[in-house]
Amino acid sequence: MPVAYRGDWVHNSNDSYLYTHPGQPWDSGISPLVGDASLTRPRTRAGLAEIPELLGRGKVTLAAIQDELFQNRNFMASVIVPDLLAACAQAPTAESRDGCAALKGWDRRNNLDARGAHLFREFWRSARAIPGVYRVPFDPKQPVATPAGLRMDDAATAAKVWAALDGAVKTIRAAGFALDAPLGSVQRPDITDEPIPLHGGEEFEGVLNNLGRQEPGPITARGLRVDYGSSYVQTVTFDARGPVAQAILTYGESTDPASPHAADQLRAFSAKRWHALPFHAEDIAKQRIGQPVTLVLP
Questions:
Q1: Burial degree of 154 (CB within 10 A; 0-12, 13-18, 19+)
Q2: Between the chain's N and C termini, which has fewer beta carbons within 10 Å?
Q3: From CA 115, how far away is CA 108, in angstroms rounded?
Q4: Cα 263 from Cα 255, distance rounded (Å)
Q5: Are 256 and 262 in contact, with CB atoms under 8 Å apart?
Q6: Residue 224 forms beta bridges with which residues?
Q7: pLDDT tens-place values along the chain, 298 residues long
Q8: 4 to each of 35, 89, 94, how far by Cα in Å?
Q9: Which residue, among 165, 140, 191, 190, has the nearest Cα to 80 in the 3D structure?
Q10: Cα dihedral value 58, 50, 229, 7, nearest 10
Q11: What is the dihedral of CA 70, 59, 78, 227, to 10 degrees?
Q12: b or e along 21-43 (b: 16 or more beta carbons within 10 Å of the residue's beta carbon)?
C-alpha cells in the first residue's frame, strides 16, 4: 500500500493516493489496484488548492480550519463560470441570457445567502457530461489547474453548453424558484420538514463542505433536499494540556423525530456554530448529564 511521511501536510478526499500532496513522489511499482493517475473528484482539487492558501495565511488554528471549510467555495465554478460569462454576449435564448444574468451576480460560493448557486448546480449537473466540454483537458502533471474552462470557441460544444443552461433555467422555474434565490431558501434537509437552511455543495461542484443526495436528481418543488454529506465534522488542535477539539454532529443527536435533539445540531451547522468537546477527565465530569452506567461481564 502507498504510504507517505511528511512534515508539512497531506490530505484525503477519497481520490487516488497520487493526490494526497502535489509534491509527493511515488514509486512506479505501486499496483494500479490501489489507484491510478485519474482525478475523479473536483473536491480533491479544491483541497489541493485551498490547503496551501490556508497555510500561506499563517499559523493554522481551529478558527482558521473552520473558516476554510465553511467558506463553501465552489471550485468548479471558479474554473468554469468565467468562460461562460465571457461568452454570454452570444447567449442564443432568453433562458440562457437570464441564466447568465443570475450567474453574473453570484459570488461562486455555496453559503446561505449565495444567489445563483442552485442554478450553477443544475447547469453543471448536465454540462459536465458534454464530451470535450473543457477548454483545457486534464493533465495529470497539473491536477489542480486542469481540466479548466469551457470550449466555447467550438460551435457544437457551445450549443450543448447553452442547451444545458437553458435546461437548468427551465428546471428551476418549473420547481417554483427564482434563478437568484438565496441558496438557504432552496437547500434544506430531507430528514425533517423544519425549514433549516443548509450551506454546502455537491461533490461534482468541488465544495469542501460536501452536501447532496444519495440518489442524485434535479431540483423539485421541495427544493434541493439533502440526505448525505457532511455528517460528523471535527476540527482538532493541541494546547499545553493536550487535544482541543470542536465538532458538529450535523444530523442531530437523536433519530427520534419527536426528540428535541433530532435536528438541534442541524441548526448549529446552519449557523456555523461549533461545539467544544471535553477531553480531560475533569472536563468530562463537569459536562456529565446523568449517572455513570457500568457494564460488567456476567
A1: middle
A2: C
A3: 9
A4: 9
A5: yes
A6: 187
A7: 888 899 999 998 888 888 899 888 887 788 888 888 788 899 999 999 999 999 999 989 999 999 999 999 999 999 999 999 999 999 999 999 999 999 999 999 999 999 999 999 999 999 999 999 999 999 988 888 999 999 999 999 999 999 999 999 999 999 999 999 999 999 999 988 899 999 999 999 999 999 999 988 999 999 999 999 989 999 999 999 999 999 999 988 888 888 989 999 999 999 999 999 999 999 999 999 888 899 999 9
A8: 15, 49, 52
A9: 165
A10: -60
A11: -20
A12: beeeeeeeeeeeeeeeeebebbb
Report the SS3 class of residue 189: strand
Alpha helices in the chain (DSSP H): 42-56, 62-69, 75-86, 94-104, 117-127, 155-175, 264-270, 281-286
Contact of 37 with 16, CB cutoff 8 Å: yes
The amino acid at 274: W
Query: Could you tell me which of 38, 20, 121, 112 has the C-alpha nearest to residue 75?
Result: 121
Measured in degrees and rounded to the nearest 5, phi and psi for residue 200 equal: 115, 175
Reported pTM: 0.92
